[in-house]
Task: inverse folding
């Protein structure tokens, strides 16, 4: 279908029941379980030529603020970050997978300057992710029009200086391009650094087959996607996701032998 990059999976460990933005997007609240599922999902994508991008580094799971609207703070020790938030990303990196998205988060133990959220912090992007954790894949920012970072002046330049390879969705693309060009002229960022990022992006485009013109045959596309095998897999996954409530501790207010039980179904009728 011509899709070569997927900004997934979510590698956040959802430890906060009041999280307004991650919640059901996370694979769970246990770092090892999240890591296993993140790697499985990402390997599935990359085995078929789609770059995976784990997000939101260094971890957006234990927050009660949505970074689309404000800047969440992770006021944790480094030991806590290593054992929970960073664990799925470390395993993803060890598995040799391709992309990571840096979130708009304030992490004082790594970046004490409150003016630099994670996505604009060289301590986080280069120091922690690229240097310490040895991540060599593509590094993306989260969308730069989000309120958690949008107020920063010359936000794309700051993101590139921090160590990101690609900057996503700034509010004013033309203004940001001119800011980067001006910074290049006055020596705030070097041509060698820009060239290195460009070569890295072009390398991944080559790996993902973007040097070849896409040939997507639209006729019969629905039939090619919705095969008997895919339908069987979907059914298998849905069945495996069912949780049977034994209610052995009588925590739920109903009995299996009750005369009247109401069943509400959304969508297809079930029996």
Result:
């Amino acid at each position: 279908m011509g899709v070569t990059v997927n900004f997934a999976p979510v590698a956040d460990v959802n430890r906060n029941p009041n999280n307004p933005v991650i919640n059901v997007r996370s694979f769970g609240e246990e770092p090892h379980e999240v890591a296993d599922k993140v790697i499985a999902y990402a390997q599935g994508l990359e085995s078929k030529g789609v770059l995976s991008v784990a997000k939101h580094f260094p971890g957006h799971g234990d927050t009660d603020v949505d970074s689309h609207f404000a800047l969440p703070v992770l006021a944790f020790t480094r030991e806590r970050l290593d054992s929970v938030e960073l664990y799925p990303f470390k395993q993803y990196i060890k598995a040799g997978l391709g992309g990571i998205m840096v979130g708009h988060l304030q992490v004082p133990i790594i970046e004490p300057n409150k003016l630099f959220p994670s996505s604009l912090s060289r301590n986080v992007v280069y120091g922690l992710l690229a240097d310490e954790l040895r991540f060599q894949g593509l590094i993306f920012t989260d969308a730069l029009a989000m309120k958690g970072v949008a107020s920063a002046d010359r936000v794309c330049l700051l993101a590139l200086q921090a160590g990101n390879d690609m900057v996503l969705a700034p509010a004013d693309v033309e203004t940001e391009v001119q800011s980067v060009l001006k910074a290049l002229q006055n020596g705030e960022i070097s041509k060698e650094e820009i060239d290195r990022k460009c070569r890295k992006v072009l390398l991944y485009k080559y790996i993902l087959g973007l040097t070849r013109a896409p040939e997507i045959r639209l006729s019969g596309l629905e039939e090619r996607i919705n095969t008997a095998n895919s339908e069987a897999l979907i059914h298998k996954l849905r069945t495996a996701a069912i949780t049977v409530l034994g209610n052995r501790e009588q925590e739920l207010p109903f009995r299996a032998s009750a005369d009247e039980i109401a069943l509400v179904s959304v969508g297809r009728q079930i029996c």
